[in-house]
């Protein structure tokens, strides 16, 4: 037995809400096309694609050592920077170069 789907017009024109036949419309935000303010303006999000075996090993290591996978990625970036004679992450965050 198939149930009838509720339509948006039925929700907006609910007879239980007796507003003298006026349609109830949700309030629009001040600027519907504007983007929300970034939560962390000093941080840039980056996606990383890992082969499944690498992901599973990293996940297992993080679980065993009770750390976040993110910590290991940042540790790896510090090693890459140091190996190439670049300042490590903490130096960059402190504003020193």
Care to describe what's here?
The chain has helices at about 10, 50-65, 70-85, 90-95. It has about 100 residues and is mainly alpha-helical. It has a domain at about 55-95. The chain starts with 7 loop residues before the first helix and ends with a helix. The model has no long low-confidence stretch (mean pLDDT about 85).
Give a concise summary.
The protein has helices spanning 8-12, 52-65, 69-83, 89-93. The protein has 97 residues and is mainly alpha-helical.
Helix-strand sequence: HHHH
Poorly predicted runs: none
Mean pLDDT: 83
Count of helical stretches = 4
Structural class: mainly alpha
The level of helicity is 40-55%
The number of strands is: 0
Keywords:
single chain; about 0% strand; about 100 residues; elongated; mainly alpha
Topology:
Blueprint: H1 8-12, H2 52-65, H3 69-83, H4 89-93
